[in-house]
Amino acid sequence: MNSRVTMGLAGFFLVGAIIAGYWGLTLSRQPAPDPVTPPNAVATAPVPAPAPVDDPTRQPVVVLLRDVAPFVQITAADVTLEKLRTAPAGSLTRLDQAIGRTPWRALTAGTWLNAESFEAGSALSRMIRPDERALAVAVDEVINAGGQLSPGDYVDVMLFLRADANNVQPSAQVVIPALRVLGVGEQLGLTNDGRPAKPVRSNEEQLKQDPQRTNARSVVLAVPESLLSRLMLATQAGVLRLAVRSAEEKRLAQYWAGENDSNAHLARADRDLVQFSQLALVGPPKALTLGSTAPRKSGVEVIRGNQISQQTP
C-alpha cells in the first residue's frame, strides 16, 4: 500500500514538472511588449555626426611614407599629405607634384619634399653657398679642440711657424678667422634648407656619433673661395690649431640670416700676419717656395711672374 502511494505521488510530481517546464518555455518565446509612447511625446530622428571641418590654420605638405632609393621613381604609395601649422618654405603641397619624379639621392621616410629633393648634388655640396668651398683639414685630438668640435661651430684657424732660415723667430698667428664647421668625421650638420644632411634614424646611431666625433681624423670647413690658397699654404707651412669661437657671437644665426662680415675680420687678420706675407695674398711672392734656403748668387735678380733668375752683368 505504501509503495503504491509513493509511486503515485512521484508520477504526480513528474507530470507537474513537465507542465511547469512547458509553461516557462512558452513564456520565454513571447515577443517583448512594444514600448509605450507617452501621448505628448514627439518622435525625433537621430542626429548625424558633424562633418569634419578643415582647420584653415594648417597647410598641406607632401611627406614620404617610406624610404626611397636614389634614381627610383616616386609612386602614390610612397607619399601622403600632412596638415602642418607651419609649412616649410618651398615644400610641395600636392601629391601630383611628387608622384612620378625621380630623386638623385636617398630620401628617408618622414621627409617633407621640396624642389631641392629632386636636384643633383651631395649633402656636403648643399651645405655651402656659391661663394664658399668645403675643404677638409686633417686633425687629431689636439687640433680638434679635444674632440669637442661639432658641426655649426665657428673656429679660427691658427698657424704656428717654427724658427728656421726664413723665420728669425717662431710665431703664432690667426690665418683665417671665423670659419664654419660643416662636419666632424662622418657627422655632418644642416644643409642650406635647414634639414639634417645625414638624418639619424635610431638612438643607436645617435650614441655612435659621439665617439666617432671624438676620434675624428678630419674636419670639413666652409672656406670663402678667395681664401682657399691661404688655407692650403698654412696646412703645409706649419702646425695648425682650430680655436673655437663663442656661441654668444651668434655667427650661425647671422649666416642663416644672410649676413656676412668676414671681410672686416679678414682685413684685421691680414694686418696681424707675422713673417708670412705669402698668406696675405698681396704683392709678388718673396720666394719661389716656402722654406727655400738656396743662397743667392751675385749679380742682378730678374723677376718674371713667379720665376726668379740671376743674371751676371
Quick tags:
313 residues, alpha+beta, two-stranded antiparallel sheet, elongated, Pilus assembly protein CpaB
Word description of this protein:
The chain is an alpha+beta fold and 313 residues long. Helix content is 21%, strand content 21%. The strands form three sheets. Strands 3, 4, 5, 6, 7 and 8 form a six-stranded antiparallel sheet that branches. A hairpin with a 2-residue loop joins strand 9 and strand 10 (307-311). Residues 281-298 have low confidence and may be disordered.
Q: Count of helices?
A: 5
Q: Whole-Å distance between the termini?
A: 169 Å
Compressed to H and E, one letter per element, the order equals: HEEEEEEHEHEHHEE
Instruction: Note poorly predicted spans.
Output: 281-298
Give the fraction of residues assigned to helices.
Answer: 10-25%
Mean pLDDT: 75
The main sheet comes to: 6 strands, antiparallel
Structural class: alpha+beta
Pfam family, one: RcpC
Protein name: Pilus assembly protein CpaB
Biased composition (Basic and acidic residues): 201-211
Region (Disordered): 192-213
Summarize this structure briefly:
By secondary structure, the protein is α+β, with helices and mostly antiparallel strands. The chain has helices at 2-28, 203-214, 228-237, 251-256, 262-272, and strands at 59-64, 79-84, 132-138, 154-161, 171-184, 187-188, 218-224, 239-244, 300-304, 307-311. The strands form 3 sheets. Strands 3, 4, 5, 6, 7 and 8 form a 6-stranded antiparallel beta sheet that branches. Strands 1-2 form a two-stranded antiparallel ribbon. A two-stranded antiparallel sheet has the order 9-10.
